[in-house]
Amino acid sequence: MAAVSASSPGGGWYGSSSAASAMQINQGTSPGQDRQSQERQTGPTAQRPTTNQHRATQISIEMPEIDQALVLFGVKGPRRTLELAQIDTLRHGQDGLLFWTLGKEYKKLRGALRYWFSIWRLSHCDFVKFARIRANRVIFRGRELPTDTIYDYNPRPPNAEYPPISPHEFELAFASCSSGCVFSLFHDCIEPPSGTFALERIPKRKRAIDLNEATLEHAWGIQAQYVISFVHMLFYHCLIFAATFGFWGWWLVKHSDDLQNAAVPLTTVAVLLSLFWGSAGILKVLREPS
User: Fold this and answer.
1) Integer Cα distance of 90 and 196 in angstroms
2) Are 195 and 95 within 8 A, CB to CB?
3) Distances (CA, A) of 62 to 17, 59, 65, 159, 233
4) Could you say which DSSP state residue 128 is in?
5) What tens digit of pLDDT does each residue of 234-265 get?
6) For residue 152, which of 68, 74, 275 has the smallest C-alpha distance?
7) Single pTM value for the model
8) Cα dihedral 230→227→273→280 (10° resolution)
């Protein structure tokens, strides 16, 4: 049988066809079934994702707002209303740096002319209530401590005394000298304050106040107070009398025998200064507003 099969015409073709059919039967698949299996694995072409179907998802995460520690510092500047600074005290570890910053802000808000030439000099600060009545317009409303929880300080009412820091303590802190004071031989040098005594007692606002808003809003902080400087008053008096004595000397050089006319400016200035000092305690206009 093996010999007949090998010598039969077309026996080779018949053998390969049978083998192919046997393999196809053994695998149990057909061309149609292959296409169906491929579609099940990859899915229909219409359902495949395209570039236009991709959408970027934007996630908005709200970060918690960090509390601030702002000291509101009011200063009488060149305008009719107060100039208000909001000083962040989170970076101030001790009272010395805080009062140094207050002095720097005072110089900027006061204005160059008032800072250098005014007879009213910074003495201390009062704990006050401010009112924003218009955009960038702040006025003084009274002397009191805040009870709102947006202000952080200790002790709080009703356990807090008013003022939490006395005027004398403020005065010593503002008058402190640096380590290399060149006038140590001529005045009493006071070392800068240390610790956190003032930082704990000055109300610190947790949110900044928007000065550009036009609505009424109240806020609490500290306001600069003033006293008359004896040194400045003495300087201006000497300056005034120096001009009259200069005229006196010039007139006597030209008119050596006319002493009466030479003393007219000096007498006039002396009378006017006496009138000024006599009315300074009566006329409110001559006092620096608080």
Assistant:
1) 12
2) yes
3) 73, 10, 9, 38, 58
4) E
5) 999 899 899 898 888 888 888 888 888 888 88
6) 68
7) 0.69
8) -150
